[in-house]
Amino acid sequence: MSIHGLDFIAIDLGASNGRVMAGTWDGARFHLREVHRFPNGPVNVLGHLHWDVLRMWQDVQEGLTRYAASASNPLVSLGVDTWGVDFALLDRTGHLIGNPYHYRDARTDGMMARAFARVPKEEIFARTGIQFMQLNTLYQLLSMVENDDPTLEVADTLLMMPDLFHYWLTGQKQTEYTIASTSQLLDARTRQWDADLAARLGIPPHLFLPPVDPGTVVGHVRAEVREACGLPAGVQVIAPGSHDTASAVAAVPDLDERSAYISAGTWSLMGVEIAEPIINDDVLRFHFTNEGGVGHTIRLLHNMTGLWLLQECRRQWAREGKSYTWEEMLALAEQAPPFTCLIDPDAADFLHPTDMPAAIRAYCARTGQPVPQDHGAIVRCCLESLALKHRWVLEAVERLVGHPIEVVRVVGGGSRNTLLCQYTANACARPVVAGPVEATALGNIMVQAVAAGHLANIAEGRAAIAASVERHTYEPRDTERWEGAYQRLLEMI
Question: Which of 81, 163, 244, 344 is catalytic?
Fold first, then answer.
């Protein structure tokens, strides 16, 4: 059944799949539909991991073509969001220089120490307020500097991943603020590139374009793309919160100072929304980050390994001849004994192992715990450990902001994981409100609708999203047993 209203398109490119999502605004609610979904992931070439951006671009156009073939409403605009930190380099003619690297490529091994030899760790944090992770843009670029990569000699412009697709859609080069903030090269207070920091690291400052705010009109869809896909004339490209987490957080209903959010997916990003960055010794010690948010906000959060653990287990078991649905994996976990073993999801062991189940077993053996043998025990270990790490982050958040958090709001694909949501409620001894599942696409579309004048502001947009989706509340259970398990995790961390 067709719904009358105005259409917006979210091109949501994730680390494991991409989607072209169409959203219709009927004046009161958003109605979301998936137009095209396609797999995404790293491609190994000569021992290095890359993104196949040309295939992704082809799939983006396929999605737009499918939309145009069935559209019945006016199309107002479209916008792209992606994962953070990765980037493309263009030459002076605007052409792509090679396939961008994947953030899990090993070229950043050892680069954090090399960076600190040039600029002290504390100074990098004082300038950027960003969590130290070796996959950050800073260390990717430094690896190129340290290895005399000739690409830097011919590079004229750096575009973060969503900026690249906006450029291909419009012919206009811009860098959006929220995605730029993930680089660890943006000054957290001025919200501009830190040219001095880049220069001291040997990174050419001329590569960077001044950041623009979410909601900025990048341009109109180029005639070549419009004609190839069958789109109407006059369709704008509007930068959403181009970092997928920024869009996801924009879509969290009822988010206030007493709420923490978790954007749960491959990564589990947990934190609070604040007006200005918090940069102090505790934020550094707890490995928190001050990433840019929509509406001139800051996302104070901890970026931890999330369902990547189970995604990689599932992939390994499929290679071994046993394919599971997600429902089957959760059923196995429910049958396994609780708290047999725990892991720190953020341990380096799990960054890019070739065999995730083997890495989990090796970690448990190294830490003197029972080694999980069957698949259900491994799945339960991952889910319980992730829920307990959520508790650790929650306590850190409360210390950093100076007041209690009363409710945890989970959005994204992980909000469908009933065990993870219930375990998080148990571990945190707080209610967990789950949904919307499609937070990133909804946040992307909502920011476009605000920019186009169809909603007054982000607060009104969040209320519209709340009216558009179903949510489920999980109350805490069995908190005493979870408290004991949490103390075990604290000893491990």
Answer: 244
Angle at 94 between CA 92 and CA 97, to 5 degrees: 85
The upper half-sphere exposure of residue 459, i.e. CA atoms within 13 Å in the direction of its Cβ, equals 1
Mean pLDDT of 70-86: 97
Say if residue 102's pLDDT is above 70. yes
Q: How far apart are CA 278 and CA 275, in angstroms?
A: 9
pLDDT in tens, 168-220: 999 999 999 999 999 999 999 999 999 999 999 999 999 999 999 999 999 99
CB atoms under 10 Å from CB of 476, counted, come to: 16
DSSP letter at 232? Answer: P
State how beta strands 87-90 and 75-82 pair. unpaired
Contact 274, 283 (CB under 8 A): no
Fold of domain 252-435+456-493: Nucleotidyltransferase; domain 5 (3.30.420)
Separation between Cα atoms, residue 118 and residue 185, nearest integer Å: 14
Please, which pLDDT band fits residue 320 given cuts at 50, 70 and 90? very high
Class in CATH terms, 6-238: alpha beta
Neighbours of 256 (CB within 10 A): 11
Amino acid identity, position 179: I
Instruction: Compute the half-sphere exposure of residue 351: CA atoms within 13 Å on the CB side of its CA.
Output: 13
Give the residue ranges of DSSP H helices in 429-478: 439-451, 458-468
Distance between CA atoms of 324 and 321, rounded to whole angstroms?
10
Write down the domain spans for the chain.
Answer: 6-238, 252-435+456-493
- Report whether 439 contacts 412 (CB < 8 A): yes
Q: Give the helix/strand (H/E) hosting 227.
A: helix 223-229
What are the residues whose beta carbons fall under 8 Å from the beta carbon of 187, sequence distance 6 or more? 127, 128, 193, 194
Q: How far apart are CA 446 and CA 250, in angstroms?
A: 8
What is the DSSP annotation of 324-392? Answer: --HHHHHHHHHHSPTTS----TTSGGGSS-S-HHHHHHHHHHHTT-PPP-SHHHHHHHHHHHHHHHHHH
Instruction: Count helices and strands (H / E) in the chain.
Output: 19, 19
Q: In what order do the strands lie in the sheet with 267-274?
A: 289-292, 298-305, 267-274, 259-264, 407-411, 432-434, 472-474
Is 244 annotated as catalytic?
yes
